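>> Question from a student workshop board

For tomorrow's exercise we were told to take the sequence and the ligand below, predict the bound structure, and bring the output to class. My setup keeps failing. Could a helper post the expected result so I can at least see what it should look like? The ligand is KG4.
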Amino acid sequence: MVVLGIESSCDDTSIAVYDSQKGILSNVVSSQVKIHEAWGGVFPELAAREHTKNFIPVVHKALNDANITLKDIDIIASTFCPGLIISLVVGVSGSKALSYITDKPLVPVHHIEAHIFANFIGKEDIEYPFIALVVSGGHTELVLVKGFEEYIYLGGTLDDAVGEVYDKVARALGLGFPGGPIIDRLAKEGKEIVKLPRPLIHDKEENRFNFSFSGLKSATIREIQKGIYSKEDIAASFQNAAVDVLVKKSIDACKEFKVNHLVVAGGVSANSKLREELSKECEKEGIKLDIPPIFLCTDNGSMVAYTGYLRYKNTGKTVDYDFEALARCRIDRFKEIF
Ligand code: KG4
Ligand code: ZN
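>> Workshop helper replied:
Here is what the output should look like for this input. Compare the format with yours to find the bug.
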């Protein structure tokens, strides 16, 4: 089966071709980083305009790189939710048009689900159950995945997402956008000399699997404003605090649900410190750890194509042309809506 995967939920237009026999045939990402850099974050209207401009050229390049034409596509998979709505509607409208002209099924994909299943592209089988730690610019959540479309939401952030906080701290330090990779790099040259809070890390009650990063963000910005510490030391101090919380809660979730398999997903899973600490802790606890290769951590069309393939194969689900994109939709509610 040959799948065209379409992703436009934030600031990257990414379209890929996935072949269930041969794997990823192409993965084109049209990045808007240069445009949003000046704003220190994604500027929604500009993002939507860029998607509109880039959509067809990116489809064209994805097909060319894969050495196929639209006629060779069997299904079209598209991110329907969650995300920046004016960006999502561009990709969804484009996907509907492609489905209409090719007369091929349109398969809806949940963005977070796609990040999770990016871990299994090119692997033989998916071993269930596992705990998924989702860490991106818009999400920080823990999900117990019992099977395809069998998701139990364990908790999420009560305020800011971890990636968003990376970006805001970077902005306060006068660094570029997105801030995650820059802080990751700087932190390697710094030391944890400021002890910053690890919010909710020891919560045993209702917030056991919830996160809160806005207090850490404010505390970090206060330290930056004092002007005493170097950018490197601030980066290292902030990163250690954020990573400690993510690692502790992920391992706790594995223990609580007696699941010895942890899967990490989303842009922040590219973080070197998070990868290192999770590897250490998982090894110590006898937990199998999956983290995608770096190019599949941030938004990409391949994860959408692959998840669309899994959906079609497992459930045969497709959508009519009157289905809409949604800004919000929790992963465990997706199957009630689509
Ligand atoms: O999953 P993603 O590409 O887009 C969303 O769905 O949000 O995630 C983007 C986020 C940004 O906040 C970016 O700063 C963060 O992922 N990020 C990182 C790293 N690479 C990307 N954060 C920390 N360390 C990194 N190496
Ligand atoms: Zn994403």
